[in-house]
Amino acid sequence: MAVSKVTPGQLGMATPFGELLGSSNAEMQAELADYAKLGVDWVRLDIHWDLVQPKANGSYNWTLVDRVFNAIDAAGMEVVAVLNNVPSWLDDTLSDAASQKALADFAKAAAQRYGDKVNYWEILNEQNKHGVDPADYTAALKQTYTAIKSVDADDTVITGGLAAVPSTGNGMWGAVDYLKQIYANGGGDYFDAVGYHPYTYPLTPKNNASWNGWEIMETGIRGTMVANGDSDKQVWMTEMGAPTWGNKVTVTEAEQAQILSEAVELAKSYDWAGPIMWFSYQDSALDTGFGLLDSSGNQKLAYSTFRTLGNQDNDVSSVSAQPIVVDIIGTMNGETLNGTDDDNRIDGKGGNDYLRGHGGNDTLFGGAGDDQIGGGAGNDKIYGGAGNDALAGGDGADTFIFEGNVGYDRITDFDQSENDLLDISSFDANSHVAGNQSFTFIGGSYLSKAGQVGVYIDKSNGYTYVQGDTNGDGKYDFSIRLNGVYNITADDLIL
């Protein structure tokens, strides 16, 4: 059965399982809350088979996995589960029939266990550089695919992410050669997407050197798929990143951010590209320098880049959001439009409207006129549109999105504790430069040039203003009022 394609270049996080598993509940919740702020749609995690089933043909112990997967599901993100870490009582190269069958049995048990909490399965990780012969892998893949589909035919099965390494003849296969052998061994009908790891550092994705991991994907990986009749399948970039420090090849923080930005830009231009899982969230001793945060929790430049891009792709399509069930469309007259407990799309069109989302994760458009918009419960997206609008998110992590012709809008219940955000990324921050530029946050400093956005507090009246200069005259070209006094930082804005 064909599976639905996902948004090209949508961002996820490739998180080492131990990073979340080893944290306290409070620490795990804090990290997942930051994922939400970053706009993470996907979390890629290993299911350590050796921990779940440590004894030969023994029972499965899902306790550790349950804790993490339940938390991710509650946070509204999709899990990409990597079936990995073959236990020691089996052949970790999958060279015998017993090991291949055991993997399929484990996959079926996992699919049954997690049901709708996990709909995406990646079969092993970088097996092409770990001595797993492609013929043996294909035999295991066929059984594993069949086992997962027997539980849910709509689940997506992804080949283990192939490492961008050369073929050396000592158990390490080049990614393209390995994929060709999967097809040669009859595996083409037993995966829904190809997993690949297009690491490029110290190069960037736009560098067309033949050994660049991105170039290998564009030509060799994609070319092999097309040659085998799989042009309709996507390439999922289930790991990608670049280290800013360590003992091997490194890049600067600016280069790390550029690699991320170029990857998303290029992926969005291909209909065959799947999501990008960034490795990783925070530096650790095991994988030095790859994080968006350093080991002390300080943000690198790529953190801001990820946040801007991650929240932009949420505006286009969020895999983690439930589908919008009810459309409620107004007329050009002022009216009251009330949502339901479903995920509503409510559009006031013209007139001075009163819109309320009620329950669910709603998207509300004020349109023209002076509107009053309330999100209600759920994680809502609120577009005031033209006119002087009063906006209230209600409960949940709400995003207030401003585009083009903004009047004197006011937000009556901005709540930083619930991760509310102001999205001003649709504005062209600098009207003198071609393209849509991002803003630079200057805090409480005075506006002095195009592309700056600042925060100004009126303590006597209890208001906070977010204002931006797009033409460089030192005056604000838009002003958004928050009712209340807030310590607004760049973390509260999508620039």
Automatic annotation (TrEMBL):
Gene3D superfamilies: Glycosidases (3.20.20.80), Serralysin-like metalloprotease, C-terminal (2.150.10.10). It holds the Pfam family HemolysinCabind. Residues 27-270 form the Glycoside hydrolase family domain. SUPFAM superfamilies: (Trans)glycosidases (SSF51445), beta-Roll (SSF51120). Coiled coil: none annotated. InterPro entries: GH, Glyco_hydro_5, Glycosyl_Hydrolase_39, Hemolysin-typ_Ca-bd_CS, Hemolysn_Ca-bd, Serralysin-like_metalloprot_C. Keywords: Glycosidase, Hydrolase. One of its GO terms (biological process) is polysaccharide catabolic process. One of its GO terms (molecular function) is hydrolase activity, hydrolyzing O-glycosyl compounds. PROSITE patterns: HEMOLYSIN_CALCIUM. Belongs to the glycosyl hydrolase 5 (cellulase A) family. This is Family 1 glycosylhydrolase. It comes from Paracoccus aurantiacus.
